[in-house]
Design a protein that fits this description.
The complex is a heterodimer. Chain A is an all-alpha fold. Helix content of chain A is 73%, strand content 1%. The chains are: A mainly alpha, B alpha/beta.
Chain lengths: 296, 443
């Protein structure tokens, strides 16, 4: 073994140092994924001792369940709306913050970052109060213009939860884009300016190509996070009204922990895992395989 | 190089050992003293002082058989999770607090010890004689009692007694009264007079979770409908559909807003306390919250607020649902007799009454209800009478799944997402599927 390592000039120290992290990763990330996949072929109730093998029973049940199909539809709308808006808003605000000689940049940046310093739960509770049909500040503001109070979480449930998610999550894409923009050499913009390129042309031909890799990262991260999390929906609507905001994460939580059906919960989480992998691959493919090449 | 190797390995082992020993330390407590028997329990915060009090009484009365209490206190939202994960992990406490609707699930799966196997004479002479029959029925599985109620509550219809009196109206006794009263108070000129925004408020969606199920079930019973009966799913009936249609009509005729399906578990009580509704479907456990929210003293509450059970439908009689929290003893406990001795103290008339007066909850013991002071504890005494005719939620080992289907049925019917008939039929099929019980339709 030592000879092989010597021959290949591989140091054992990094492997040993990585071992604790890899062990934790294996125990807390890789094992649960395989365990969930394995459990998805069983009927396993939380309290009932033992489990029964039912093959694809859970998968068949899910795809015959109208509530699950509805949750897929709602998830597409929620994730699509949230990701698109977070990505665009992050890009636009980052571009504005990078404008040369902008006064009050630090104040703007702090204000925009502020929501992200709050936990998802706190953000949700704040919005719940603001959206209250009886005593919420939003209805108070619209009433100043003569409008009737609106129950936002009833009539506009899905758009509202998307907006709250965007309000909270845009900061992440903004930070990523802003830091990437600051890494673009100023000389490129100066040269383009000398050549007569407009602001728009500089953005299209210099900024956007330079953001290609970070865009891929931002898209993957916000998409996966939005699919997997449901904290905002849990607090604001709990999936209602009548399933209008019942995203797949909420549906999984209800089945696994409200109805104590661990087998079904594991099946849904396996489906979410596969969807995550597929979406990541689509993004990578969409950005061109060169993205995967090593950048030296 | 060798030294570096050795150092790295030792550091890795040290970190791992520290983490593992830290984990072990966090989970266990040094409750096992030099003397006495350690008893472990999982309870909720409001109950914890009374468990401690009971143990302290026991220890002073039995100095040679002392108990060391190892108690984990959790909030209600975490309780089910904590108990199910403890049970699934084979790590149940000696006894715990449990919601009465979970008893069948835990008993069926073999986690609980029947009380009559521990002390049959106490069950015969105290438990069977002093606890309300409806509660004993709900706490039993296959003819054996598994749980002791520590308090109880019931579904009620709160109404503004002062407004009804002003308008010359009587409290609702039938659905017809209820719908006409709700509609009356939803009229624009009446709303202007009292400042309310709706005639009636009730939770009717999945967002309110179990509150929706527990508060709407009496509307089925009050019309002669039920969910499970004699080992069959009997939900799909003309009477259930009528109940759902009645609730939907309250929305259609403007007595209640369409967004009742988005109400949280306590929205109705808040609307009632703020004077925004004339009638609210709620529970006896809400009295303290209504007073707190409205700032009414007990005398003001008595003057302004009235309460009745859910009125009778065309095919039934007035109805209410009783629930509450129970104590159970786990099969894995090595000290079942001792556990029951402690629980007898906690649920005995003395400590129980102190607890109920402090928390404004109803008594599961008939003798304690009778002992309430008619002036000071008038509310507990009056509502206690409803418990003789109370019903309990369906007893099922998969109750949570049954409840989810009922919530969907209520939300779909009230919102008009589907017709009442379709919603009821869908729920009945789903409940039949999850319970494995045969469906009986009587439409």
């Amino acid at each position: 073994m030592q000879t092989i390592l010597k021959k290949q000039k591989i140091s054992i120290v990094p492997i040993v140092l990585l071992l604790p992290a890899l062990t934790l990763l294996a125990v807390f990330s890789i094992y649960p994924v395989f365990n969930a996949f394995f459990l998805s072929f069983y009927n396993k109730q939380m309290l009932a001792p033992g489990k029964t093998f039912i093959g694809l029973g859970n998968y068949i049940h899910l795809f015959q369940d109208a509530a699950f199909m509805n949750s897929l539809k709602v998830t597409v709308l929620y994730v699509g709306g949230s990701v698109l808006l977070q990505f665009l808003m992050g890009l636009i605000i980052a571009s504005l913050l990078c404008v040369k000689d902008l006064k009050g940049r630090a104040i703007f940046r702090t204000l925009i970052i502020l929501p992200y310093t709050l936990s998802e739960l706190v953000v949700s509770l704040i919005w719940l109060r603001m959206l209250d049909p009886q005593s919420g500040v939003i209805n108070y503001i619209i009433s100043l213009f003569g409008a009737q109070p609106v129950n936002w979480l009833f009539h506009w449930a899905l758009p509202v939860v998307i907006l709250v998610n965007v309000w909270w999550g845009t900061t992440f894409s903004l930070l990523m884009f802003e830091s990437a923009m600051q890494g673009i050499p100023q000389s490129l913009y100066e040269a383009a300016e000398v050549d007569g390129a407009s602001v728009f042309q500089r953005f299209i031909y210099i900024t956007l190509p330079a953001l290609k890799y970070i865009s891929l990262l931002v898209l993957i991260m916000i998409t996966l996070y939005t699919i997997n999390s449901f904290g905002i929906i849990f607090v604001l609507t709990a999936g209602g009204p009548v399933g209008a905001t019942n995203v797949i994460g909420m549906y999984m939580w209800n089945n696994a922990f409200q109805s104590s059906d661990l087998g079904l919960g594991a099946t849904i989480s396996t489906i979410i895992f596969i969807v995550n992998i597929v979406i990541t691959l689509i993004y990578i493919r969409g950005f061109g395989m060169s993205t995967m090449e090593r950048r030296d | 190089m060798k030294r570096l190797w050795l150092g790295t390995m030792l550091a890795t082992m040290f970190i791992f050992t520290s983490v593992l020993s830290g984990c072990a330390g966090a989970g266990s407590q040094s409750g096992n003293g030099a003397k006495g028997t350690e008893i472990s329990a999982i309870v909720q915060d409001r109950w914890a002082p009374y468990v401690k009090k009971a143990v302290s009484i026991w220890n002073s009365e039995h100095p040679k058989q002392k108990v060391n209490l190892n108690m984990l206190v959790v909030g209600y939202p975490q309780l089910y999770q904590k108990l199910t994960t403890s049970a699934a992990g084979g790590n149940t406490p000696d006894f715990s607090l449990i919601d009465s609707v979970w008893v069948t699930e835990f008993a069926k799966n073999g986690y609980l010890q029947p009380l009559d196997s521990i002390d049959p004479s106490w069950v015969k002479n105290d438990y069977d004689k002093d606890f309300y029959p409806a509660l004993i029925k709900g706490d039993s599985y296959q003819g054996h009692p598994y749980a002791i109620h520590t308090q109880t509550d019931m579904v009620l219809l709160w109404y503004r007694k002062d407004w009804f009196k002003n308008e010359g109206l009587q409290p609702p006794k039938t659905w017809q009264d209820l719908t006409s009263d709700a509609k009356y108070f939803a009229q624009k000129n009446i709303e202007k007079k009292y400042g309310n925004t709706q005639g009636i408020a009730f939770q009717a969606g999945v967002k309110a979770g179990e509150t929706t199920t527990s508060q709407i079930l009496p509307f089925l019973w009050s019309n002669g409908a039920d969910v499970l009966k004699n080992g069959q799913v009997v939900l799909n009936s003309k009477n259930t559909i009528q109940s759902m249609q009645m609730l939907n009509n309250l929305v259609k005729d403007g007595s209640a807003p369409a967004d009742v399906t988005t109400y949280d578990w306590n929205t109705s009580l808040q609307l009632f306390a703020k004077g925004k509704t004339a009638i609210s479907v709620g529970g006896s456990y809400e009295k303290a919250s209504i007073q707190q929210e409205s700032g009414w003293s007990d005398a003001q509450f008595k003057q302004k607020v009235g309460f009745v059970p859910v009125p009778a439908g065309p095919n039934g009689k007035p109805s209410t649902q009783s629930g509450g929290m129970d104590y159970v003893i786990y099969k894995s406990s090595q000290n079942q007799k001792l556990d029951l001795s402690i629980l007898k103290l906690i649920t005995g008339p003395k400590l129980m009454k102190d607890f109920l007066v402090e928390t404004q909850q109803n008594s599961p013991r008939i003798s304690v209800t009778k002992s309430f002071d008619p002036k000071k504890q008038w509310f507990l005494k009056e509502t206690g009478n409803y418990l003789y005719n109370a019903e309990t939620r369906p007893s099922s080992p998969v109750y949570s799944k049954v409840s989810t289907q009922l919530q969907n049925m209520i939300e779909d019917s009230v919102s008009g997402n589907t017709s009442a008939g379709t919603a009821v039929s869908n729920a009945a099929s789903a409940i039949s599927q999850v319970t494995g019980l045969k469906e009986k339709s009587s439409k």
